[in-house]
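Hey all, sorry for the wall of text incoming. These are the two entities for the joint prediction.
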Amino acid sequence: MRLRLRPCGNYKERYEEELPIFETDFGRLCCIAGLVLLFFVIPFVFGHYGLYVLNHVGIYAIATVGLNILIGFTGQISLGHGAFFGVGAYTAAILMTRLHVPFLASILAGGIFTAVVGLIFGIPSSRLKHLYLTISTLAGQFILEYIFVHWKSLTGGTEGLILPKSTIFGVPLRGDRAFFYVIFVFFVLFLWVAKNVVRTRYGRAFVAIRDNDQAAEGMGIPIFRYKLLSFAISSFYTGFAGAIWAAYIGSITPEPFTFGLSIEFIAMIIIGGLGSITGSDFGATVITLLNEFLSQAASYFMNVKGLAGAALTIAPLREFFFGLIIVLFLIFEPRGIAEVWRIVKSSFRLWPFSY
Amino acid sequence: MGFFLQLLVQGLSIGCLYAIAALGFVMIFKSSSVLNFAHGELLAIGAYIFLVLAVWLKLPIYAVFILTFLGSFALGFAIERLFLRPMIGEALIEVIMLTVGLSAMFKGLILFIFSGNTYVYPSFLPAHLTLRIGGIAISPVYTATFLITATFLVLFGLFFKYSSQGIYMRSVADNQVASLSLGVNVRRVFALSWAIAALVCAMSGIILGIINGINVHDLSKMGLKVFPVVILGGLESIGGAIIGGLIIGLIETFVSGYLSTSLRDVVAYVVLVIILMVKPYGLFGLVEIERV
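and here's what came out:
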C-alpha cells in the first residue's frame, strides 16, 4: 500500500473526494500519532496541576464543540450555554446523590436532560429569525440560574451538592489521571461524532440555514426541525460536558453557571473559529490557559508584599481581556485560530511558491 | 388598598426607568438592527462620567449635564468608528457577538477603574417637584423621570417620523443595501445612531444613578432587563418600549409585593419567554412577513 501524501495540485474529480476528513494519509498519520501522544504520553508526563488544566480544556472543548455546531454551523446565537452547562452538572449531581445512579448513566442523562431543556428554550426560535433565539436563551440563562439558587430541596441552593465518588463498572475513578482518560475518551468520541455530523446531510442543512435561510427553505429543508435539532445537539454536548465537570470537581454550587460563563463559551468559539470543529478545541485551550494564567498571576501577586492590591485589580481585568479578545478576533480574524492554522499549514505546503 | 396604590406608583416609576433605559436600545436597533448587548455598560459609562464630573471635579450641575452629554455623544461616535465600522457588511450575528464582547470589555474596564462599589450622586433636584397623589408622595426623581421619559418619547417620535436623518435611519434598518444604492450615507447614519443612543443611555444612566446609586453590576443587569421590555413592546417601537417598560415594571413590583421578593429578578424573563411563544413581535412591533 502506498501512502498518499499531499498531491502537488488539486486532482479531485468527484464531489465525494471533497468529503473525507483526511485528504491524505499524512493527516491520518498525524491523527494517530496525536492520539497515541494524548493517551499514552501526556497523562504520564504532566503532573497533577497540568492534568487538572488539561481536564478542564477537555471538558470545555466538548462544550464548545457543541456550541460551535449551533453558532458556527447553524448561525443561531445562544447566550444560555453557561446555564445549560449547569443543567447538565445538576442533573448528574442530583441523579448521583439522590438516586445513586451510576456515573456513566448520570452523565448521559445529564446530556439528554439538557437537550430537552434546550429544546424548551429553542421553541421560540421556530417562529422567528435568529435574533429571537438569542433573546430566549438569554431568558433561559436567568431563569435557570434562578432555579439553581432557589429550588433548594432539589439543588441544595447556594450550598450546592457534594457528589459521591464516581465509579465506572465498579472501578473507582480516583485522581486527575483517571478522569483524564474518561474526559478525553469522550472528547475524542464527541469530536468524531461532531466531525461526522457536520459533513452529512444534517450538517449541510445546518450550513444552508446559516448562509441563507430562505434559500434553504426553498430547497426543501424543514428549517424549524433542523434548527431545533442543532440546538438539541449543542445543548446535549454542553450538558454532557457539565455533567462530567460536576463529577470531576466533586461538588457544585450555582456560582459558576452564570452569564459570564456563557460569554466565556462564546469567546472560546470566536477565538477558535466559527464553523470549525478543530477551532473550538483551540479556543477552549486558549481561554482555559488564559484563565489559569490570570488566576495564577492573581495568587502570585497576592503573596508578594505590597502587591496584594494589584491582585484585586486583576480579577476584573479577566473580563476585560475576554471582551477584548472577542472584539479583536471579530474585527481582524473573524474565522479565528482555525483560519490562522490553515494559513500557516498552507504556507508550508505552498512554500517556496506561495501566492 | 394603600398597599396596592403604593405598589402601583412604585411599579410605574420603575417602569419609567425601564422605558427610558430601553430608548437607546431601540434607537440602535431601529437604525442598524443590531441587538446591543453592551447596553447596560453604555448606561454605566454615562453614569460614571457624570459621577466623575459632579463628585470628583465638583463642576456646577448644568455644566456636568452638558459635558456628560457631549462626552457620551463622542463616545458613541468613537465606539461606532472603532468597533462597528469594520463590521459593516459582516453577518449580523458577528456584529451582535461583537457587542457581547464590548460589554464584557467595558464592564471589566469600569470594574478595574471604579471597582464594584456603589457610588451616590449629590442631590440636586429641586424639592418642589414632589407630587402628592392620594396621600402617597412621589419623590422629585420620579417626577423628573416621568417628565424626561415623556419628552424623549415625543422627541424621538418626531425625529423618526419627520426628520430626514430619522427617515434615513429607518431605511437603513429596513434594508442596508437598498438605502446605500439610494444614496443614503449609511456610515453617517450608523455613527449618528450610536452617538444618539449613547447620549440617551447616559441620560438613563444618570437617572438610574440618582435613584439607586451607581454600581456596574446593577447597571449591566439593567442593560439585559431591557430585552424583556423591548420584546414586549415590539423591537422597533419607541412607544412600545415605553409601554413595555411600564408593564414590566408593574409586573415586577406586584410579583415582588404579593408573591415573593426573590422572584423579582426573574419574572421579567419568564414574561419574555411567554411573549416570544405567544406574540413574538410584541405589542407594537412590525410583523415581518418572512417567517423562516
